[in-house]
Design goal:
Blueprint lengths: L101 E4 L5 H9 L12 E8 L13 E7 L12 E5 L14 E4 L15 E4 L12 E7 L13 E6 L15 E4 L10 E4 L3 H13 L10 E5 H9 L10
Parallel strand pairs: 1-2, 2-3, 3-4, 4-5, 5-6, 6-7, 7-8, 8-9
Antiparallel strand pairs: 9-11, 10-11
Protein name: GXGXG motif protein
InterPro entries: Glu_synth_asu_C_sf
Organism: Stieleria magnilauensis
């Protein structure tokens, strides 16, 4: 069936992203990599999908953060220690562009047609080699690419609006732009990496998979999580982990107010500082078990960092139970 042009969006266009100037002469550079002509570099990320109030007041855009220094309060690392090189190896190497197996445009297909086109991509016999699908025409669309449950590698050029990739399953997704509120809500498996900023409620009600955000994120990041791993390279807003029961949240920069949940088993790690902690939780150094857990998530998120630079945010009752049991968590600590 021939493609039907997609009618203009009737929803209100997203508000431009608030930007902050980069510090002159202070930014380190990424290792020498050449982006393809149509690729978006960190210095030219689209800024059309994130409301002004979706970021913490003092959050810096990703291109203003020195590589290896995720926040002013974080330990200084050399430029080879914490980079985005592993973010998308095939995307930054123009020689791999011919390997794209399928290409679809969000400007030419309705949402349902696009989902069906992705799900109809045939899978090879080799389960280790997933088909690569390029998505063009991303321009702040809301509720885009929801409920994709096909094992393919999906690469999106441009920014998306609210609820992008909600209820994702199996798909490996990489976005070269910003996303709005509710990215990856209800995600159950697969991975999503956003080379830009995210709005409020990133990873809400996740039950599995990995969500990596390489800019900053807003309030209630990881709210109501039930599993999976959530990594934010920059700063986050208030009430991170609100209502979360399980999973892992890693914050590379600073956090706002009310970080943590005193009745939660979610593992929260932070490298910067929090404006305030929720009553009933405290900061504690990592044990060997948490170092391994955090190290695995950093690898999964494509970040080369040292787990020992982080502290964990843990309920006071849980920490006391750990100490009393010599490192083993007492099941009824709550």
């Amino acid at each position: 069936m021939p493609h039907v042009p997609k009618p203009p969006q009737s929803a209100k266009p997203p508000t431009p992203l608030r930007s902050a100037p980069a510090e002159s002469g202070s930014r380190e550079t990424l290792p020498n990599k050449t982006l393809p002509a149509d690729a978006q570099s960190a210095e030219s990320l689209p800024a059309d999908a994130l409301p002004v109030d979706a970021l913490p007041v003092d959050a810096l855009p990703v291109d203003a953060l020195p590589v290896g220094a995720l926040s002013d309060a974080a330990p200084q690392l050399d430029s080879t220690h914490d980079t985005m090189v592993g973010f998308d190896q095939e995307s930054v190497d123009s020689t791999n562009l011919p390997d794209i197996d399928h290409e679809f445009s969000m400007q030419e297909l309705f949402d349902a047609e696009l989902r069906e086109a992705i799900r109809s991509v045939p899978l090879p016999g080799d389960e280790e080699k997933l088909p690569r699908v390029e998505i063009l025409g991303a321009d702040g669309q809301h509720a885009a690419l929801m409920r994709i449950d096909h094992p393919v590698k999906l690469r999106v050029r441009g920014s998306l609006g609210d609820y992008a990739f909600a209820y994702n399953s199996q798909t490996v997704i990489k976005v070269f732009g910003n996303v709005g509120h509710g990215v990856a809500e209800g995600m159950s498996s697969g991975s999503i990496r956003v080379r830009g900023h995210a709005g409020h409620g990133a990873g809400t009600a996740m039950t599995g998979g990995t969500l990596g955000i390489y800019g900053s994120a807003g309030d209630r990041t990881g709210g109501a999580m039930r599993g999976g791993g959530l990594f934010v390279r920059g700063d986050v807003g208030n009430d991170v982990g609100l209502g979360a029961l399980a999973g892992t949240i890693v914050i590379g920069g600073d956090a706002g107010n009310n970080l943590g949940n005193p009745l939660s088993n979610v593992a929260v790690f932070i490298r910067g500082k929090a404006a305030s902690l929720t009553p009933g939780v405290t900061e504690a150094p990592l044990r060997k078990k948490q170092e391994v857990q955090l190290g695995l998530l950093l690898i999964s998120a494509g970040i080369r960092g040292d787990a020992t630079d982080f502290r964990r945010i843990v309920p006071i009752a849980k920490l006391a139970a750990e100490n009393a049991a010599r490192g083993e968590v007492v099941p009824n600590w709550r």
